[in-house]
Amino acid sequence: MDKRKLIYIVGGARPNFMKIAPIVRALETSKVLDFKIIHTGQHYDKDMNEVFFDELNIPEPDYYLSAGGGSHSEQTCKIMLSFEKICENKRPDAVLVVGDVNSTLACSIVSKKMNIKLIHVEAGLRSYDRTMPEEINRIVTDSISDIFFVTETSGVDNLLSEGKPENTLHYVGHVMIDNLLFQLEQLNNNKKVSKDILNLKAKLTSKSNNYGILTLHRPGNVDNKQILNEIIDAINEISKKLPIIFSVHPRTKKQLDCFNIKLSNSVTLIKPQSYMNFLFLWKDAELVLTDSGGLQEETTALGVPCITIRENTERPITIKQGTNVLAGTSKKSIVYEADKVISGHSKSNKRPDMWDGKAAHRIVKILQDKIS
């Protein structure tokens, strides 16, 4: 009879699976811990199976909750109801959540209501901006978690200041960087990139030798016409010196059309890509402009200059040590920071401590002691 302890590993949005993949790969070698992958379906993605099998090298989810869209409350409620049934049917010894999406919050609440041990990976990050839904998810999840795995020292400081016991905090590095380095090795070993993306990169580099990357999706940036127009004015200005590849989130595309905001001919729009395709593009970019949290960290890990189009960040290590700068949302500040990079005056940087591709193994080693 298998006496291994069972952990439910929760993912709901694509970035979640980038974070759980290294943990799953590490758990597969454990002799004392078993796991099941829960896909809440927070983000529907018809290509998710391709991501699992062809890129992440992890098993297909054991449970798919099909939560779908809706308001934050509706989505959280649907996930909670479905996840509770799974836990009632087969109670795990622990639940592991990552990041700060609605799935993270929903499954955390269910776990603690059922007195199941809760593990939070990427714990302790704070933007101190409570208008961001992710900040609320982070705060609430950390308030009820039992074991905290932290990506940077600011997370440890935040959790200690919030009264968390020191013996529950573990600074282990970052599983997102584990996955980045894993995928980079796959890419270097001739892992396939789509022909369209190969051709796009070849076309841009043949004309200008370089290009920039843009991602933009946060409601605060794309749902406000004045702010979105200011950001796109900046991008159009930057594209006069550096052609831009814009990976357009469906929400952003909808708002651009709704507000009738036009992009320069030097801005190439592409749909959201698989992880490998997008990595192939941004790893060699002269500059990345984004409001994403994950890209701030990934660009720091590979030394690619990053301009964050936000007023704050929950990942301060990317600014203190990494390649990241905060530019806010004004045209003037965004263009100013981009011009510094284009003119060869990027900030100096180093990869943070323990962002070495081994965070997941540290996590599993600790869990083997804490749970078994």
Shape: globular
Would you identify the regions where 5 or more consecutive residues have pLDDT less than 50? none
Tally of strands: 13
Overall mean pLDDT score? Answer: 93
- Strand order across the biggest sheet? 3-2-1-4-5-6-7
Topology:
Elements: E1 5-11, H1 14-27, E2 33-39, H2 48-56, E3 63-64, H3 72-89, E4 94-98, H4 102-113, E5 117-121, H5 133-144, E6 147-150, H6 153-161, E7 169-171, H7 175-188, H8 195-208, E8 212-216, H9 219-222, H10 225-238, E9 244-248, H11 250-259, E10 267-270, H12 275-282, E11 287-290, H13 293-302, E12 306-308, H14 317-320, E13 324-326, H15 331-342, H16 359-371
Parallel strand pairs: 1-2, 1-4, 2-3, 4-5, 5-6, 6-7, 8-9, 8-11, 9-10, 11-12, 12-13
Helix pairs in contact: 1-7, 1-16, 3-4, 4-5, 7-12, 10-15
Short account of what is shown:
By secondary structure, this protein is an alpha/beta fold. It contains 16 helices and 13 strands.
